[in-house]
Amino acid sequence: MSLSKQDLLRAYRNMKTIREFEERAHAEIMNGQIAGFTHLYTGQEANAVGVCEHLDPEDSIISTHRGHGHCIAKGADVIGMMKELWGSSEGLCKGKGGSMHIADLDKGILGANGIVAGGPPISVGSALAAKIRDNGRVAVSFSGDGSVNQGTCFEAMNMAVVLQVPAVFVIENNYYSEHTNIDYAVGCDDLKARTEGFGFPVFVADGSDFFAVYEAAGKAIAHARAGNGPAGVFAETGRFHGHFVGDPQHYRAEGELDDLRANSDCLKIFRAKMAETGELSQEELDAVDAEVMALIEESVVAAKAAPRPTPEQVTEDVYISYGAAG
Amino acid sequence: MAEKTMRDALNEALHQAMAADDSVFVIGEDVAGCNGSQGEVGSVGGVFGVTSGLYQAFGPNRCIDTPISESAIVGAAAGAALMGMRPVAEIMFADFIGVCMDQIVNQMGKFRYMFGGKSKCPAVVRFAAGGGFSAAGQHSQSMYQIMTAFPGIKVVIPSNAYDAKGLLLQAIAEDDPVLFFEPKVLYQEACEVPDEMYTIPFGEAAFVREGDDCTVVAFGQMVPKAAQAIDALEEEGISCDLIDPRTSSPLDADAILESVEATGRLVVVDEGPPRCGLTADIAALAADRAFKSLKGPIKQVCAPHSPTPYSPELEGFYLPDAEKIKTAIRETMA
User: What does CATH list as the number for B3-192?
Assistant: First the structure.
């Protein structure tokens, strides 16, 4: 699979945008500027971007509580997202969803999701709609190593096979479901094999390498898009922050985070590859960095200035119509 | 006009809705039946027969059998609805809400709000609900009471075949998610049902009886029981309004309050247990907003705070009936 220069720049820009969005969100949360619970995607950027680079706006994704990265990779408006974190009525979800529920249906983003494995069944429904309409669309659900132990995930995977729908299950193994290691929480030794046991192919990737994820996701998405039923992507990855912002991370081994940041940073790995192939110059990448930093700054300035919601908005958008009766 | 059972009326509504709009499909366990077996696919048509003939008429892409996976069924309906389809999912027994609660309450019911009003989820989930079948604790609950508490979903409980057809067609036309509870003891009950398509708007109660002395509000299978009680009391010179709200969310509060203001008395009847139920909800509504009109105590007629028992005698003691409703009306009149 060859990527044009434009593709490479877009992929890098998206990964960098996710990184800086998350790092700035982290800083602003620590400053007390952002309310609620936030789960950062820093370190896992190559997964979201490697998958979403294969998708059109008409394809759908559904995400997790760690959802900012997937939303940005699928084209969500970064300024609207930052306003949403700020709880403004101009946020992408009018301040009704916050970090865990960012969605943009026009971009095919069926939402981040506060319930672990809440998404896969819904994604099967999106894939079912594609199958019924025979429109060539695929539906991707992102899950983690925690999500795969939920019954809803099992139900969704089995049903996707039974109904032969174009669902793609992306499993990002960041090794921790909250504070518990996969070695404890996944009962079998081979999660890929367990997933394949449902009856669909699973393509494995190093989740710190954009190109590896891009290749594996390409195979899985092509399989589903061609009408061969569901497929999976299994990526090993690492989150650079805790489960949530403020997590003391007692579960980390000494030096684990330093090692992750030094050796599993998808941005560094991408840059190194570009230096090796010469497809993008360091100057071109630096220019993207500057552009991204400016966008993130702009988003924070805009979020701080954005209007606050008003009392009557509390009960808006519960229903499309509820009649005169209450 | 032909008499049809509630089952046939619901089945007719599904046939007509699917013929009229190719975004409508049904999905659930055995809605077709016999898939992967020696039997003829489509020969089941739902365990209560409500989806009968849909497989034959519309094929496997629009009458979709699933594994026994209620969360995935509701999720599939919710996801397809987000993408513009109008699914009608069947969850067989309402009790099974216990295994798909998250997909109903936290997912489909909250999309629109959490997504800032930018999504639409026109999914219907149908359930066979309520007692009267000696089906014991896990197959007899009515469940619509607790689902009424959740903002973002609409809750429908038809009490007769005519309403069932019109309300189901309305449910399918709704752009919000709808939970549709079919009292299973009423499937075989018949009344006159037009052949053509028609809708009954949500949030508009039906006045099943009209009277001056007491307002009786009843839901689902309690409506015919309340009517029986009221007709018997007519001979004693007591006349009652009987209000069937038909939808508990939205609730036609105005109809109830206007009636209570006129009669000064209120009896609320439901087959569910008493705590945090619909009878308590409507009693509170009247106490809050029509207190000064009240001439007697608000009476709640409902099941006791116990699971539904199996034995036919025990279930008979458990469920409200016309005698219990009559007693309640007499008590508030005393």
Answer: 3.40.50.970
